[in-house]
Amino acid sequence: MLLLVTPTVLTAQKKVQYLQYEDLKPYHFGFLIGMNTQDLIFNHSGKPDADGHRWYGSIPSYTPGFSVGVIGDLRLADFLSLRLTPTIHFGSKDVALITDAPGATPIYSEVRSNYIMLPLNLRYRGARTGNFRPYFLSGLSAGIDMGRDKREPILLEPVNTYLELGVGSDLYLPYFRLVPELKFCLGLGDIFIHDRSDEDSEVFLKYTNAFDKITSRLIVFSLQFE
Hints:
Elements: H1 2-13, E1 27-44, E2 55-58, E3 65-75, E4 80-84, E5 87-99, E6 107-125, E7 132-145, E8 159-172, E9 177-187, H2 202-210, E10 211-225
Antiparallel strand pairs: 1-3, 1-10, 2-5, 3-4, 3-5, 4-6, 5-6, 6-7, 7-8, 8-9, 9-10
């Protein structure tokens, strides 16, 4: 979509600059829609099971999810703004538990997560060229997982903190700004619940013993309308 939209805007900017006074507003609002990919990073314990075999986790494939949110932007200076973007990320990931035992079949488990995230970011924007203005942002986000299933063998903590880094650009159109953005959300803490004493299943114990730590991350591409 960037390849389709950017040439159109760059061509139009040679004729007229749209929304010339939009950046002087002290604050503005908008909304976003987008897609996300959820991932987990595994730190393995290397602990053998009763048969002397070790188990390892991986995510063999990624399933795109859907994101929707609202935007509040506070102008701090000409090139700097404070940005709050509460967003819901719907998605899931399939985890394969693999053993080093010869001929063993992997064990698959779906981890579904619907994250409600409250990011607070500083957005630094470059100089405007016609109807195009790039930016970089960074900040922190609090995430609450509302979609986890306690019956699954992998159970994750419901609350986590994320470091966010992103890039994007303001594309000025006649009546609004279209803002494509690519953002990386990197989980800062261990979200794996190690104590599953509520379940006696052997499969649950395999997961519990396999991991020392699990961290979360998301990649989000969104189109913002401001």
